[in-house]
Amino acid sequence: xxxxxxxxxxxxSGLVDRQFVTPGERFYxxxxxxxxxxxxxxxxxxxQNGCTEFVANDSHGKMNNILVEKLHEExxxxxxxxxxxSMMQGLDQTFAGALFLGYHARASKPGxxxxxxIFGVRSMWLNGHEIGEMGLNAYLAGYYEIPVLMVAGDAxxxxxxxxxxxxxxxxxxKTAQSRxxxxxxxxxxxxxxxxxxTQAALVNATKMEPLTLTEKPVLHIEFANYxxxxxxxxxxxxxxxxxxxxxxxxxxxxxxxxxxxxMTELAMQTTFC
Length: 273
What we know:
Structural class: alpha/beta
EC number: 3.4.11.-
Enzyme class: hydrolase
Shape: globular
GO molecular function: aminopeptidase activity
Protein name: D-amino peptidase
Keywords: Aminopeptidase, Hydrolase, Protease
Helix content: 25-40%
Number of helices: 7
Distance between the termini: 52 Å
Largest sheet: 7 strands, mixed
Order of helices and strands: EHHEEEEEHEHEEHEHEEH
């Protein structure tokens, strides 16, 4: 069984604010170690339960956070940017399932460091269904007919996953007290939970269906201000629909995914002076 893990950082236990997830900040190196540890816990359990190949894609920030020298020796790591498919780089039809680790809730929802791609995004929809990073990533997995088997992160992310992916196994390693505070499991307890839920996810794998679309995708992104929408709408095929919401009619989910990447990158060019 070949497994794919998309690994974000905000949903790792013990990481509660930007000091843990931003290079150069006070606790960033601790955050890197805890992130790497959680990948190792899941990978170890996966290999003990039928996994033959495990590929982890570093999916946070500049996507070079996981400490390769401290990684489980059998894990293959996709690290660095630019990645044409960002948080889902390297995924293809050869995988039996996907795992989302260290995930957070979507923008405008309560949860530890909740957001969607950039802090200028208020919300995102695919064919009228509100989604965040998790949703778009799950739809891209579905494009390849790959089910999401497990989501690990804060309790809000796990609740979002259960609504999006009926029957998915979740591993809530912390519970938000505010957007920058959480009730966290200790590393020892989070290891136990992650490994138990990984085993459960692999047992449950045959019951999970890929998340797919029956129609061509229409992507809508609502930005925080009009300047961001102006920049995003510069991408060919995109247009401002209403206020700060930009739409894009895509041929398929892969094109919608890359459109999201381009529009959010453009939106970050906005200045406020």
